[in-house]
Amino acid sequence: MVPEESPAFPGVKLAAGWATIEGEVDKGMNERIYIADDEQNIREVVKSFLESEGYCVSAFEDGDQLLAAFRERPSDLVILDVMMPGSSGFAVCSELRKISTVPIIMLTAREGELEYATGINLGSDDYFTKPFSAISLVMRVKAIFRRMEFDTKEKKTPLPLVLEHAGVRVDLNNKTAVLEGAPLELTPNEYNLLCYLIQHKDRAISREELLNKIWGYNSEVETRAADDTVRRLRKKLSGSRTLIETVWGFGFRLKERPAGE
Hints:
alpha/beta, 5-stranded parallel β-sheet, 4-stranded antiparallel β-sheet
């Protein structure tokens, strides 16, 4: 059934039986989520959806309240509206990134490349344009937490301490990267993407595989997260010998730039 916008909750799309997600049986393990949106109807319906999946949710009327609460007691995930009284969602996202790598999902009533790029470049992990499907938002939250759980389990598996490729060196213990000896400043998703590409540099990697392995999304989720993160990573690697090549209609492949190019 295609979700329709609810008259009771404009800006959020609902479907029959919205209190649970059909086919989903895993429940949140009391992960703490903070939401900031000045629209009460959106706060309430998103909070209800997430709480029905077992998450502990606190909702705030503006980003300044959320930021103050986060500094007092950090959450496991943050959902931020862009346009709010006081500090904008972009400003709050920027402040959060100074103190935490917590996953951040942005909500906006504006649709456009600039809005999307601004949020992603400031360090948000994903982006929803209103009106959005509340079910899709919950699925995205679940995917992010699955990815975090996978990362935690992966740390217990012995891995090479260092990854190297064409002048790039990644220290997996310290979670740092250098390019030709100079520090490479990366967001968590850029770092994870670079590691995955180096680990699988012998083959092309599909967008679907990246979305699943890096973000934890299934194939039904529509997002530009992989392409946008690749674009930003390319910019940071520009001028180096490391090249992320596009495999048209499929995904990406890590290559070494030929000498003289």
